[in-house]
User: What shape does this take?
Amino acid sequence: MTGLLLAVLLAAPQAAAAAVTSPGAPSSAGVTAVAFSPDGTLLAGGYGDGTVRLWVVATGRLRGPVLRSSSGSGSGAGVTGVAFSPDGTLVASAAADGTIRLWNPATGQPAGPVLQAGSGVNGLAFSPDGALLASADVDGAVRLWVVATGQPGPALRFPGTQGGVTGVAFSPDGNLLAAGYGNGTVRLWDPVTGQPAGSTLQADNGVNGVAFSPDGEFLASADADGAVTLWQVATGQLYGPALRAAGTAGGVTAVAFSPGSTLLAAAYGDGTIARWNPATGQPAGSPLQAGSGVNAVAFGPAGKLASADADGSVKLWSTAAAGPGTPVSDWIIGVAAVLALALAAAAVTITTREVWPTSPGRTLWNSCWPWPRWWWPPRSCT
Assistant: This one.
């Protein structure tokens, strides 16, 4: 039995791995946010049901308990952003109900009081030194929080700005804080003084998110009209025409730069992920096909790309191994169970439990597949 299943898996193409769901978790709970820990060992996923899950990247196993980021339910309970502190000792999660929570990723316990933004929060970011946490608020304000005390600074607002703040990002040196707005503008702030820094940047359409390149040269915006706009940080000027990917549809939901600043990834609502060389503006292969709408993307320190998908899965893409136009999904994380698929030259290893999708809650395998749960003698796997 197990040999037959192993043979089937070995014969299957890499892209054929299927997401699984967990007992008691609604299948409609899409993944809304994703972030790697600074050392790349952990991956945090925020979900539409108000939960946050931490995964061990090397094994695909759940790390610690499921974290409840919101006490509410329904559309107002969803997680809208997750971020690790630069030293990896904190995970921050934001929810649509306007709350921000800090967690200790080692224990899964809260690390400080719940922060109240006063309106829904669309995203958050730690400063490079970890002293500040910025939140992008639905009411049009950018709020800076002192991490050590949980105290908020003054809300940063531009007079006459319409639309909420959709995303925030600190420059690598910490001297600038960029905020994207629903009205299509990107504004820069001095996070120390709280004063505007430079002129207002104008995208072609509403902005869904912003990101600085790790080398500090570029600032990118995810635009609602399906474009990615690039600015040169030193001059505040547009860097070439807006980037548009062939074969994609819908708006850009998020953007992210690779650690070496050599790749720029953009997530689309139609389930595709486009990649460019930001210096040349040329596509880096064909769009990756996630299979459902992609809400967020993040690069890890080793260069792997994670996508937060509307179908409730988190996918890891080995962009280096994939090559131009060949998406390789290393493993797919379900809403609360994981199907970890490590494909090597002659082996397939599944390193966690599989829950049969047609029979919710029925655990078929122990944590070291392919040893069945009903097999005798029983085998304990940790």
